[in-house]
Amino acid sequence: MKPPTADLSVESTLAHCELLEPLSESQIAALSDHCTMVMLREGEALFDENTVAHSLFVVASGRLAIRLATPAGRVIEVVEVRQYGLSGWSSIVAPHIYVADAKALEDSAVIAISADEVEDILLREPAAGYQVMKKLAGVISTRLRDIKEELIEVLED
Amino acid sequence: MTSPDPDLTPEVTLRRCHLLRPLSERQIAELAACSTTRSLRAGERLFDQNDEAHDFFVVVKGRIAVRMTASGGGAIEVFDAGQFHLCGWSSLVAPHEYVAGATAVEDSTVLVVPAAAAEDIFLLEPFAGYEVMQRLAGDISVRLRNVRTELLGLLNGAGSEQAEPAQVGEAEPHGVV
User: Is the pTM above the cut of 0.90?
Assistant: First the structure.
């Protein structure tokens, strides 16, 4: 395994993203042709809950926190996204609304790709696109299971 | 128990399932050919939470309640799957374990579709398969949002003294459990 900051080329970062692993080299190259790099300072927001989701993000360096909190500030869910991790998956599934906030936990560099471009590229080789979507459905399903368990705990308190 | 409507062939039932709508006639016919029909009495279990998930189900007739329980006995009513709704989608995605249990609310008939065979059929026309999986991801995402909203409501005090199992979310327009 490569050390976390050994190679920050866009293509290499995308190729290391587990969710995008089913894609071919040409699909990864096409994605890297259509992305921009976003630099975030510690504490800076990448996206806000309930906003329209246009972009998918892969962390090139640093860390993001995906958080859901009550208006009173009680955090009910935190997912930390590290190097090569993906966030903003709501952009490629209906209803295309971010379901949580994302903020930089430290100074971070994030690759941003338009969701429309992502879908076009996934569908160039739809069998690979299918596998990406299947992995994504599995990730969301696991998240759903976790939060249901949290809900049951709250109901039992 | 009454017989299911004879006009509801497996093909018709599968064709009317929202999640499977992107599939071609050929794919629907192949899914129908590999499916079997199962009848359940009211109260009978279809699958148990945490069981390995090998099959998904489309309701031909009746109603299936999907409920998640905790070791402490708490439970949430996740969804009632009515006619043409699909349940047991965990069979299609890792880790292939049912996230909730399912029981017939009334006498019911379901189509049982082996997930491994279904995936082969989806990939016969991968563009359609992609759309099915995208719909599934979207539907799970909506459910995730609903459960989060419910949880936020409870943490904000609304319904925090609720003793009965909570009904989570609205019935899904896409009928996926």
Answer: no
By Cβ distance, the residue of A77, A136, A149 closest to B137 is A136
- The predicted-structure confidence for B42-80, as pLDDT tens digits, reads as follows 999 999 999 999 999 999 999 999 988 766 666 676 788
| Domain range for B44 | 10-155
Instruction: Please state the φ and ψ torsions of residue B83, each to the nearest 5 degrees.
Output: -55, 135
H/E element holding B139? helix B126-155
Residue B138 with chain A: CB contacts under 8 Å: 93-95
The answer to whether position B4 is within a domain reads: no
Residue where the block lists tokens 């504490």:
A43
- Structural domain total, chain B: 1
Kindly state whether B71 is in contact with chain A, defined as any CB-CB distance less than 8 angstroms: no
For residue A135, give the 3-state DSSP assignment: helix
Cβ atoms B56, B102 nearer than 8 A: no
Tokens found for residue A20: 């995008």
